[in-house]
Amino acid sequence: MDIGKNQVPYSRKRDHPQFQGMRRSVYTSSSERPTLESQAEIRSSCLPCSLSDTETKQTVQKTYNDDIAKVVEPASKSSLERVQSMTTDRRSNSEEDKSVEELKSTNSGKGKNTSHPKIYLPHSAASFYSGNLLPTDTSVLGMCPGIQRLNQYMKYRKADIKAGVPGKFLQAVIGQEIADVGSIASTIMYAFFLNETQISKQLCTVPIINISRTDFNTHAELKWLLRSCRVEEINLVFVDEVDLSSYKFFGNLKIVLLNGDKLPVKQEGLKDALVDIFNRKQDSTCCTLVAEKFAETMPEILAGQGFSRLLLSGILLDTADLKNPSCTPKDKYITTLLINGAGRYGCDGLYQMLKYKMFDITDLKVRDILLRDFKKWTRVAGKPSSTGSRLTVSNIGMSSIGISVKQLLAREDSAAKEVVLFKESQRLQLLIVVSGYYDFQKIFKRDILVCSSSAELMRNFLHFFNTNCTNLPLKVLDQLDLIDELRAFEIDNKLTSRRSIERVLEEFGGVLRKQ
What we know:
- By secondary structure, the chain is an alpha/beta fold.
- The chain is built from 20 helices and eleven strands.
- The protein has helices at about 5, 20-25, 40-45, 50-85, 95-105, 125-130, 145-165, 180-195, 215, 220-230, 245-250, 285-295, 305-320, 330-335, 345-360, 365-370, 405-410, 415-425, 455-470, 500-515; strands spanning about 170-175, 205-210, 235-240, 255-260, 275-280, 375-380, 390-400, 430-440, 445-450, 475, 485-490.
- α2 packs antiparallel against α4, α12 packs antiparallel against α13 (about 305-320) and α13 (about 305-320) packs across α15 (about 345-360).
- The longest helix is centred in the N-terminal third of the chain and has 35 residues, at about 50-85.
């Protein structure tokens, strides 16, 4: 049999519906089909070699886009509708329409295929089938029910503060005057715990962060942690945003103190309103004890990854990743209950990430760097006023930084002047900037920058330092061009701790008070 004579040559054809518009627009005859051999001709016909060719290309492209839209959009819509029909118990019809529009608008840039303008490509298959795009920052956890309840609680309590807490007692949960993760996390969580478990409807329990919002904004680790846990920062109430003395004056203030047996100096006049102290003995970290409270009453809330990460971070930093000698067996046990909060980092990785963020000053100005780790010695003067507050006098302050003095003064053109302005804004007579850093040879070094209100005070301090601190020899940094109010030194003894410098300042402060 002569089979070869009647055999039709094979040609591969693309019959997918997406190419229907291309076939109609490029070929005049419906019987013609684009084969592999004709691909080069099709591509070359689209090149704008002349004005007439450009007009032809625009016409073809417009027809092609319209036809692709007719074919692809119903297919995409039907796929999304199938996914959304399986989640009708979680979304309303309006939310479904919104998610479709959001998917299209999000993929209008990067996710859009430039060859097919009307085809919207998701960033991943998982995001397509769930109807939502994955967050670009992988450190941000998914929203859990516990964090949703926490955000709603803080939002309502802040609204109550703005309204003056009408008809209720303000129960302020407040910690020590420290801007660290453990203090802020335990303040927020313990206030939430009291709100969830208290019976009395006469109490408006509010967590009061015992630092200013400006101070909070200089701590990258705090902002990163709250953002990764999905805690809404805008709903926090800081101590400079509420007048606690006025609530005490009208007799509707109750204070719950965390981590200590007495209020900080600034709130000493409010001690009559103190009704409870949590973690007075400080046997374990405060976050450990708060997590223990939740485990005993509502353990299911600790399953939320964001909720558990907030408490876990406080424990890890307060115990130096469970390696501090003061770390207790209870701290380690509670950490195992909260380990889900570590996520993909693991406990060690989460601790290292928080430590890294603590020293991240990339976006900070000189004033913010000085304010990050700032301490000043105050003394109480005079009798209590009608509101219970007493005058505090500050003579000396100390800022600890993780870069050299030379790097600090090089961050801005007016960096030296900013140091002087910071001293004046804190109403100090003497400001000491203590620098601890590693140079290019990975050798640890420590510098100090002294800013005084007068030349006489500068001489007195340097004489006191050289006389009483022979183990802390100072070497003048001559290469820096400083203004009259500033002096910079390098401490030759590399083993000098920050605490030893604090003791010197405390002793010198006592000398100033006697003068």
